[in-house]
Amino acid sequence: MVNKSEKKKKRIIPVRLNLLFFIVFFLFSVLILRLGVVQIVYGDDYKREIERTEDITVNNPVPRGKMYDRNGKVIVDNTPKNAITYTNFGASQDEMLDVAKKLAKLIELKPDKVQERDKKDYWILLNPERATKKVSEKEKEKLKEELEAKEYDKKIYNLQLERITEEELSELTADDLEILAIYRAFNSGYALTPQIVKNEDVTQKEFALVSENLQYLPGVDTTTDWERSYAFGSTLKTVLGKVTDSDEGIPKEQLDYFMARGYNRNDRVGKSYIEKQYEEVLHGQKAKVKNVTDKSGKVVETEVISEGERGKDLVLTIDMDLQLEVEKVVEEELRNAKSSGRTSLLDRAFVVMMDPNSGDVLTMAGKQLVKDSETGKTEMQDFALGNISTSYNVGSTVKGATILTGYQTGVIKPGTVFYDEPLHIAGSKEISSWKNFGNTSDIRALRVSSNVYMFKTAIAIGEGNYRPNKALPINKKAFDTIRQSFAQFGLGSSTGIDLPNESTGYVGPEKTPAQLLFLSIGQYDTYTPMQLAQYVSTIANGGYRIQPRMVKEIHAPLEETNELGPVIKEIQPKVLNRINLEDGWMENIHEGFRQVVANPEGTAYSKFLGADYAAAGKSGTAQGFYDGPLRKNFKNPVEVMNLSFIGYAPHDNPEVAIAVVVPWAYEGHSGHSANYNIARRALDAYFDLKKTREESKLASPSTTDNGAAEGAETEQQEQQEEQTEE
């Protein structure tokens, strides 16, 4: 018999089991409901989340840094302009073509950059069935047997391209070619990297239409692009350099170098001179954008990591006011000399003005007369670059270096006298000074520009023994001795200027006695105007060869303003070497150069009469052969005279040095004085400008920003001079 407690116990167990089943059922129901919500409502989102991957960070270019002159005037800037871009966010070929067709209805793009290969590719894209029939089935079967899959597809496509006829290509209409031009631009960049479709002559109407229809043009955007602008036109443009355009991008030969430094293939980079030399400074900090894509390559999220910053600004050593004045002088004197009727080959002239104590290039002027092949008219073009890229026989301007070489080798000493008379060497024509000067000292030799004094110094360096009408044996090591000595001043060696592709001149290959004598008077090896400027600066500052520089400061950029930001780096003067001197050596060279200008017997005396400053200098006339652009027009070599002048002022405390070169100045033995005229007028311009600025500063010392800047510049220059002396 079952008692009551057992019955009660049996009844409780089923109740508990039912409750448990109910709870389990309820939990399963909630789970199923939750799974349903996850799968049905959020399934696609979670699927994308699982499949999404982070792509590489994309760097978007920014405007380049500006260039200013030493007084804060903008020389090179960026001019904004409307642009239309395309970024491929994983679109297929058909999708890109569809967008190109829509965009072609809104803008005009000339197909001038479309190549024949582009047309053939596009024809195949438009006519896939006709393209397929270009290769027969038998050919395909044969190629399948001979080639692997990849090579097979490539071969088939190349055969299709080859068999497209001119008639078939002519089927492409003007509208087709415009669409092709846009489609080509779409394909010219990397995925996820904005590519410029049009940035030239984008009208306000085009810009507005595209902006209004962006929702129908996936990947297309309207933005502001930039191009380099030059506040002073062509002035100094050959030295400032060029930047590649958006179509050029990175030059092929430099692709690996720049790609390894985070550049995009279509980035614009400096391709010559200052733009190239300071590319890493001017290029700026690019904006960084991270694109998150799914497995199919579609962008699901874009995140801006950094906004980027335009390139840093450069302050050049150039004084643009002085540059413009000197260029005006060069142009006028070049035209005057050309119209004198004494030359047909003269087409260029050069001037370099430097601070001999710091190496600052204040002016680098070069002009060239060029005949336009279409109009036949002769135009004056900027050729400032010629100061470092071209070299010439410069004549007697090197005589200061010749005498110092004589001092250093011990063959002469201050006060040594040679008898100036014509020299007769067996097998050679008579060689002499332009006048027989009789007994001549080293100082007078510079003053009157004695060739014979230099000849006899060179003969002594070469251990020769001159006897009239006899052969002149010399030690050929004398060539190396003189050239190594000249190189101490920068003649025949790199000046170290912060510009690429500097020429070091021509070194004559022959080592005959006659050539040694010509070397000593600047009529054998060739030198650039910049080398002459460094050479005369080395004499002016007492024997320090200082590296010429075009850039003196690097500044942080300030947005939306033409004012300079904080200084990031100040480029200090650099002494390359110091001439080994003894007492009296450089003093005699200084005195000889001073007398060239100040003594009535000096070759430049009449040219500097009445100057408000006391200058020193040396003129040069070199007889040589024409080797310019018209040399192919002559069967025989044409003898020409090159003119030059070097100098500095004031002679007792030099603050500016100058080198002038006028190549192929005239034919024959009489001509013009363009070298003297340019030197005098250029130095006048320097001191006139200095006087005007000092007067302006005194007139308003508390309100003239330029005056304050000049005061700071003067203080900095004094510090640099002290460092140079140390």
From TrEMBL:
Residues forming coiled coils: 133-160
Residue stretches spanning the membrane: 20-42
GO terms for biological process, alphabetical: cell wall organization; peptidoglycan biosynthetic process; regulation of cell shape
Name the record gives this protein: serine-type D-Ala-D-Ala carboxypeptidase
Lineage: Bacteria, Bacillati, Bacillota, Bacilli, Bacillales
Gene Ontology cellular component annotations, sorted alphabetically: plasma membrane
Membrane topology: Single-pass membrane protein
Pathway of action: Cell wall biogenesis; peptidoglycan biosynthesis
PANTHER family on file: PEPTIDOGLYCAN D,D-TRANSPEPTIDASE, PEPTIDOGLYCAN D,D-TRANSPEPTIDASE MRDA
This protein's record includes keyword tRNA-binding: no
Keyword Transmembrane: yes
Domain Penicillin-binding protein dimerisation as annotated: residue spans: 61-302
Localization (cell): Cell membrane; Membrane
